[in-house]
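hey m, so remember when u said the tokens were messed up on ur end? i reran from scratch. heres the input so u can diff it against urs
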Amino acid sequence: MAADTARPAGSSLPVCIAHRGDSVRAPENTLRAFAQALELGATWLELDVHHVHDRLLVIHDETVDRTTDGTGPLSAHSLAELRALDAGEGERIPFLEEVLELACGRARVNVELKGPGTAAPTVAVLQTAMRDGRCRPEQVVVSSFGWDRLAEVRRLAPDLPIAPLIGKGAGGEVIEVADRLGAEAIHISRWSARQRLVNAAHQRGLAVRVFTVNREWEYDLMLRLGVDGFFTDDPLRALTWGAQAPVLV
């Protein structure tokens, strides 16, 4: 696969990916968080989706307790009840389509598949956005810790960019999986970011993006390792590290 398409030609700077939007200053995974990240100059957004009542909700947890004024599992609520919850500062849990409407053409969108049954509905929503001309394939990437979900995405949409996620203790298996899936990148924990792994991925033509980098010394380390992108909760600060300028997608 080609190198990271959102990285400026000739630049050694990794791209800054707003993790759940500007989640330091706004409620995570809300339209406000994503809009603020775009206003700051972020050209990548990351979000999480769960499939509930035949819709894709942008929320990280499978329960609403942590991020809304509600309680209990997503599945215990009707869609109307979920949409009526306060996700912070009056924000609502958005649908994936709403975030795409906001961001497509302005930023690349990383959709992380969190819950079961998310692969096919996500492909359907993304393909509809592409048919409507709102998004191009290169403006999205689908990631997941559930590699079987990515295999389903690949089967349903051979040209859709995908990236397997792996946490602490990542090894060469993630590269093998990425190769097998025809992925464009691997997304790894900062605790797993080692020079050997980064080099091996680059030798296979895979971009390396690291989560979650919230301190400047962590960014400096990622810069030395030569990673292609990093996820951060604080895009305002992160965009200033290394005098990093916004990158057009």
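this time it looks ok to me. The domain at 15-242 is CATH 3.20.20.190 (TIM Barrel). if urs says something different then somethings off w ur setup not the seq
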